[in-house]
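Appendix B, Record 12. Input sequence as logged:
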Amino acid sequence: MADSNTTRSGGIGFLGLLCIVFVVFKILGNITWSWWWVFSPIWLPTLLILAILLVIGIIAIIVALCER
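Logged structural output:
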């Protein structure tokens, strides 16, 4: 029988746990936030990455236009 050195990574991350906490607080009435903010731990990281990519793209376009 061969040794199997496999590692598993999974489970809920910090942002997923934070989202669950926010949902529980919202349902229990502890916070009066909009549902957009309750689910923000899910969509904010994606928005941040898209914003960074947009800035990099704009810089690349400016550099390309300046080289002409």
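The first helix runs from residue 14 to 28.
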